[in-house]
Amino acid sequence: GPDFGYVHKEPLFEGMASLDSFGNVEVSPPVSVAGKEYPLGRILIGSSFPASAGRRMTRLVRDFLYAQRVQAPVELYSDWLAVGNVNEFVTFVPSSDQKRFRMLLASPAACYRLFREKQKEGQGEATMFKGEGTALGYSGTDTKRVTINKVLANDVLAQQNQYVQRCIDWNRDILKKELGLLEEDIIDLPALFKLDKQGKAVPYFPNTVTMIVLARDLGIPKPFGPVAGGECCLERRIRALLEPLGLCCRFLEDVASYHGSLGEVRCGTSVQRRPFAFNWWHCAP
After folding, report:
1. What sequence ranges are listed for the domain Protein-arginine deiminase C-terminal (predicted)?
2. Which end of the chain is less enclosed by CB atoms within 10 A, N or C?
3. Residue 12: inside a domain, yes or no?
């Protein structure tokens, strides 16, 4: 259509992988880093751990992105995920203050803090996955009723999420440095993961970070967290973190449509953004 275009890159000798998906090409809001301005933000791509032989984005695509120096790419570590896309652990939402945005990170540590808090309040038997247990794969007799107490007593799950948190913290440090962020610019959203047979992480419940941002309306995967006092405690905590920024949280059920195939709301949706007021093609690196 008018004012739209695309570039097609097809590698001749390399196979395509999930790290070549567009969920693995994100861009930050405009930032200033160590005196250097990035008026169009910076490209974020996921890759393998440094010095490892893991999955990487196809070289043809990586070289194409690096050649676009105005948005100088930042390479993150995403190969610890089964799908391996950066949008599984980081996204950005607008704010009305001087910073203009917040970075959201998936956080197992924040989830465990919340669950322990609820356990201390006497809500340890609050049940997860109500109405969606079978679709989420929790229909076995031993896990039919997943409670806060059961999650907190699961040592294997705790160890797996400690590993995931270390992977996210590695990226947190990179993002703070490369985007010029402070801790106050970051919001940790409760998340849990589990490792598959290959040792790669998949979401334990729908991953709320993989949301769609429509100005100040957020389409967030419904997490089906522990219900206490008639409300999902994960939804309540996320609202408490994001609504003070003037954002509207709308939780969307995406289990059958996306989550069951290791995706979320953002994997099947797109947004047409309003262009910058200035001639962005005149920006020089």
Report:
1. 1-282
2. N
3. no
Q: What separation in angstroms does the CA of 22 have from each of 6, 27, 41, 152?
A: 13, 11, 17, 35
Residue 273 lies in a domain: no
Strands 43-47 and 74-77: parallel
Question: Taking a C-beta distance cutoff of 8 angstroms, is the pair 56, 50 a contact?
Answer: no
DSSP annotation of 26 reads E
Cβ–Cβ under 8 Å, residues 123 and 228? yes
The β-bridge partners of 107 are 190
Torsion of CA 194, 79, 237, 231, to 10 degrees: -40
Both structure tokens of 151: 């999650």
- Tokens found for residue 239: 């609202």
Residue 161 lies in a domain: yes
Residue 206 resides in a domain: yes
Q: Are strands 217-221 and 193-195 parallel, antiparallel or unpaired?
A: unpaired
Q: How many residues are recorded in the chain? A: 285
Active site residues: 267
Q: Coil, strand or helix: which one is 86?
A: helix
What's the pTM value of the predicted model, to 2 decimals? 0.91
Please give the Cα distance from 193 to 115 (Å, whole number).
15
Expressed as residue numbers, the domain containing 124 is 18-267
Instruction: Look up the CATH number of the domain holding residue 145.
Output: 3.75.10.10
Give the integer Cα–Cα distance in Å for 149 and 110: 16
The structural domain count of the chain equals 1
Of 213, 248, 217, whose CA–CA distance to 103 is shortest?
A: 213
